Amino acid sequence: MKIKENYAAIERTVALVKEKFGADSKIAVMFEKCISNTLQTTIKIKENDTVFVITGDIPAMWLRDSACQLRPFLLFAKEEPELVELVCGLIKKQMQCILLDPYANAFNENGDGQCWDHDKTDMKPELWERKYEIDSLCYPVQLSYLLWKNTGCTEQFTGEWLEAAKAVIRVFRTEQDHENASPYTFERENCSFTDTLSRDGKGALVKSNVGLIWSGFRPSDDACVYGYLIPSNMLASVILGNIAEIAREIYHDEKLAEEADAFSKEVRSAIETLAILPAQKTEYYAYEVDGFGQYLVMDDANLPSLLAMPYYGYCDNKNERYQNTRKVILSDQNPYYFSGECAEGIGSPHTYTRFIWPMALAMQGLTSDSKEEKLKMLEMIADCDAETNLVHESFHVDHPEEFTRPWFSWANSVFCELILDYCGQKVTL
């Protein structure tokens, strides 16, 4: 296995983008650079046919980020067997990571003890960080499913994959009763309160056994305020349905299929019952709840988000509750929605006030039916790149030259996916 300098399917798409936007347009130039940057600078082929994908300027692999980084390449993999092999190699590595520790979110390359910090939790030498996040377990499953649906490939569905999928279900079941059943704790010393868990590492208190799954941290790697993180529960419901279909069609395991399908429906029912804000004129989703009646109204730029519901398959973008939620989070009702002289969009408590995330702008375009809105988001991202021709984590809405993370492959990939979407090429869910 190796990464080629050129792939015919990618070269044809680059030409299509140049034709669509103009060969010298900023969007076309950025697409060519961003798609190449992910492929040529973040992927490492290992000896055992696994693939390790660093997030960019941090030399570690996040389960979530790595899946999102390679998602646009599913559109090229239909014609490029080598890209199928790359994605399969990543999935193999991700499943090994889940089996090593399903509570970890990020891993180092060589199992040599390198880590973000020496946290009070059950660290292993392969772990970069051990922040339990529901979505970290979801994305490798969804990438496996999307590879199957977009290319027909089933090589990823090994015995090891099946064991990892069962581990995901076990953890999710355990974390429905986090207070009484979970072995997981996490504490970090000398840090912001968002980087550690309260109550001696136990984290946000929730009402147990209400159907939702507890998460210690958000996809931003920030601690949850209330332990039931709704976008991540939504994604969990989706991938449990994926597991059910895979179990039935690939493994011919009807017992597992029925278990996963029932679990998916259970989580969805809990979301639709417990995550809707009470006493409002319209029905919309909270970002986090605790099961006792407390709600957090906001959205975060990191994926999965409330804005991204149609993107990861929880509902379509015409769903009334989704549209109501979209209006709330794309307004000043969301405390992390910022509007300025150069741009407006969703930011994150993970970054500075009045900094918005290109990833959220891209997601606003990807979840819209309006070509005009899609183009507006593309132009806003391109205009605010600080003349780097790459996409950053966040930038100031009044001063785009002020940005965080010069090399952030996840954002590059989501931007590329919006361009592909605008050109009529979409990942099949």
UniProtKB/TrEMBL annotation:
<dbReference type="Pfam" id="PF06824">
    <property type="entry name" value="Glyco_hydro_125"/>
</dbReference>
<dbReference type="InterPro" id="IPR012341">
    <property type="entry name" value="6hp_glycosidase-like_sf"/>
</dbReference>
<dbReference type="InterPro" id="IPR008313">
    <property type="entry name" value="GH125"/>
</dbReference>
<protein>
    <recommendedName>
        <fullName>Glycoside hydrolase family 125 protein</fullName>
    </recommendedName>
</protein>
<dbReference type="InterPro" id="IPR008928">
    <property type="entry name" value="6-hairpin_glycosidase_sf"/>
</dbReference>
<dbReference type="GO" id="GO:0005975">
    <property type="term" value="P:carbohydrate metabolic process"/>
</dbReference>
